[in-house]
Inverse folding.
């Protein structure tokens, strides 16, 4: 049974090549951007002003500017670059996940391969759960690995840039907090996966349910409900629930609640939650943070809704054939 | 021997349209059953019910199980080939074989590979690179490895040229079929399969109009080829089907003493294709 499940996961990766191609493209983009920095930016002369407690001085080179900075500021810049890289990769992979889930059960009916898939001795539950597992486990792992590789690439190439221009090659490595960044990334990915779980369930359900254009239904139904709720001021709270689960909700989480850019979805008690702040740097999750997250009723409501929609998707697939 | 498939009062409605209407049939081991009918007769719906793909009313047992509940388990014993379009285009042959080996507990990869070795299909081919004939061969290679006791074929040779069609059925009978296994074939081109069938079920407008072993056709039906002069007298014996051929008329009679026909012309057992037309046309004329 486990072998079948793992094979079904592999089958998803075989079919959905974007799950491999997009991370590789992102890595290629990171490589090109860093090569561009190496060839153009690092040797260009810009004027920077450095203010310290004792003096104000001008520098005309990007690398000089960085090398003369205070160590704490260097750390903020390096960790900031890494987290920004991670956020960009994460955001793009969330879009990939959105389209993957919408296509996962609809696509097999559209191309009539459902008749072949149903000829295998594999239950509908196992099939749907394998697709959900791609979103819940595999894509976060892909995000983590791609972010790690992208940041390693950045560090290696920029270290070489420093070395090439007669600066200390280990300058960047002294400031980077690899353990902190990894822990921060794992925690955010876990939070994000749990937070988006009801959305994943909803997308799977739409994919199993819609006879055409699941994307329209997946977006339109919540949009109509939000419109009705807010236009008629029904005060059901539905609009807030939906908005919280949109990408901007998670963006605010990634920025940390101190940024005050948006309402932090989990921050019901106005306590600080782990995140990255341009002033405070990385703050790793404590046991209290994790407990606070897990004790939030919205988290559990989301999980229950996600399980409900996933159950519906399994049930719908049972009676779906190639007739869309 | 116990039936592998047993249907009683099998009925399926799509909204107000009744696709299958209270049909009864059994399929036993060692039989090659043709489920034939015109387009839209209810053939594919019947197959989908057998494979547990749709809801239905009535009683249906497949290997003693309810296909509505036990579809995944049933697929250990049933192998299914729909027309060639159902194989995923993006999959490579080696991935497909890997998938079969991982999901079917008793899959024999060697048998599939031996079969593929006699074709032009390589393991690195993607399904979309294969011709229709090659896709059918690939399907057959998979079937050879599965050890299924029942093979269900839904218009398996649709769109294939005669060479591939003949080869497909030859390989099926020589390399897959035996007395412990059964094959159920749906087609609307009966002439393709009439040489291999042991039983025929003709379905039209959701109802079974003929259901019998091929060897019993001669006991129930007789074909008379007569001249136009004798045709009028023969018609008084109520043929179920008649067609004109130049100066002759061909009539099919049901449950008739053939001695009564001999005086009008040449009497024989009807071809399946003519019987099929007779059964379908008869019900069309109702």
């Amino acid at each position: 049974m486990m072998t079948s499940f793992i094979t079904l996961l592999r089958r998803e990766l075989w079919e959905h090549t974007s799950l491999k191609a997009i991370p590789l493209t992102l890595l290629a983009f990171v490589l090109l951007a860093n090569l561009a920095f190496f060839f153009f930016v690092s040797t260009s002369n810009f004027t920077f002003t450095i203010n310290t407690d004792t003096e104000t001085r001008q520098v005309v080179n990007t690398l000089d500017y960085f090398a003369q900075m205070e160590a704490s500021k260097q750390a903020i810049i390096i960790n900031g670059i890494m987290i920004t890289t991670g956020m960009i990769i994460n955001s793009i992979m969330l879009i990939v996940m959105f389209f993957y889930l919408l296509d996962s059960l609809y696509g097999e009916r559209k191309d009539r391969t459902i008749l072949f898939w149903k000829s295998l001795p594999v239950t509908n539950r196992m099939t749907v759960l394998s697709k959900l597992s791609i979103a819940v486990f595999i894509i976060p792992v892909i995000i983590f690995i791609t972010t790690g590789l992208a940041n390693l690439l950045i560090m290696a190439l920029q270290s070489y840039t420093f070395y090439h221009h007669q600066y200390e090659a280990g300058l960047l490595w002294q400031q980077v907090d690899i353990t902190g960044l990894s822990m921060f990334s794992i925690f955010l990915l876990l939070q994000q996966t749990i937070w988006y779980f009801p959305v994943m369930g909803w997308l799977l359900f739409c994919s199993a349910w819609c006879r055409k254009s699941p994307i329209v239904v997946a977006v339109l139904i919540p949009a109509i409900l939000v419109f009705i709720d807010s236009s008629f001021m029904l005060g059901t709270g539905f609009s807030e629930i939906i908005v919280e689960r949109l990408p901007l909700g998670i963006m605010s989480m990634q920025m940390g609640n101190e940024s005050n850019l948006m309402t932090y979805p989990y921050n019901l008690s106005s306590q600080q939650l782990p995140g990255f702040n341009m002033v405070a740097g990385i703050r790793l999750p404590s046991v209290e943070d994790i407990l606070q997250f897990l004790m939030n009723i919205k988290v559990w409501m989301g999980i229950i809704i996600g399980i409900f929609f996933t159950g519906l998707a399994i049930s719908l697939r049972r009676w779906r054939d190639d007739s869309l | 021997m116990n039936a592998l498939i047993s249907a009683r009062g099998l009925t399926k409605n799509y909204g107000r349209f009744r696709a299958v209407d209270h049909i009864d049939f059994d399929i036993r081991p060692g039989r090659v059953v043709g489920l034939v009918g015109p387009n839209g007769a209810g053939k594919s719906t019947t197959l989908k019910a057998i494979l547990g793909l749709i809801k239905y009313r009535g009683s249906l047992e497949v290997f003693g199980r309810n296909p509505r509940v036990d579809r995944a388990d049933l697929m250990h014993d049933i192998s299914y080939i729909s027309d060639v379009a159902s194989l995923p285009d993006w999959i490579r042959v080696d991935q497909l074989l890997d998938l079969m080996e991982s999901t079917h507990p008793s899959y024999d990869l060697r048998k599939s590979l031996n079969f593929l070795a006699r074709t032009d299909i390589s393991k690195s081919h993607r399904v979309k690179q294969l011709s229709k004939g090659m896709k059918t061969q690939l399907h057959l290679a998979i079937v050879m490895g599965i050890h299924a006791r029942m093979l269900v074929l839904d218009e398996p040779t649709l769109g294939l040229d005669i060479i591939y069609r003949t080869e497909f059925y030859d390989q099926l009978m020589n390399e897959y079929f035996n007395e412990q296994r059964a094959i159920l074939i749906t087609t609307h081109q009966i002439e393709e399969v009439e040489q291999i069938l042991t039983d025929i079920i003709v379905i039209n407008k959701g109802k079974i109009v003929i259901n019998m072993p091929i060897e019993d056709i001669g006991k129930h039906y007789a074909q008379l080829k007569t001249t136009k002069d004798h045709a009028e007298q023969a018609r008084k014996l109520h043929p179920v089907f008649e067609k004109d051929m130049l100066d002759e008329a061909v009539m099919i009679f049901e449950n008739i003493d053939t001695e009564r026909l001999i005086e009008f012309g040449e009497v024989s057992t009807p071809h399946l294709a003519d019987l099929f037309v007779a059964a379908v046309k008869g019900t069309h004329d109702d």
The radius of gyration of chain B is 21 Å.
